[in-house]
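Q: Structure tokens for this one, please.
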Amino acid sequence: MSPSRETQPVLIVVAAVILRDGRVLLGRREAGSHLEHHWEFPGGKVEPGEDPPTALARELAEELGVSAHIGSPFAFNYHEYPTRRILLLTYLATIETEPRPLACAALGWFDRAEVAALPMPPADGPILAVLLPLLAPGDPLPVAGPPAAQSMVSRQQ
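A: Here is the predicted structure, written as tokens:
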């Protein structure tokens, strides 16, 4: 028997808003994962005893193979999925080396129009409302078209 929503613990999740030339870095979730194939901000769960910026730096090293400077808080959102409750804390972050998709299916740098066309987790909605005005406008994509191929890197299998 699963716990009721009221007794489910709230997972603290951290994510990075990494900007470059009017684009934001996003990773695509792998097949078989919760919200598979959705694009998301890189990050993950805060482990017991970790503070959020330390957890985010750890997650970026694990997921992207980068050392990151974690800056100021960007935005936050509380969201209830059918099977979990999360508090999403996003921080501005910078990286000095090129990220690699170590724990996601692909990575990409996306402008406003591209981000608006991507499937993203519902918890990211309020974060996107703050972020989108900060991104370069870009050209609207065709409804069935993929994101700009030149801005994506897939993980080598």
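A few notes: The longest strand covers residues 68-80. The two ends are 37 Å apart (CA to CA).
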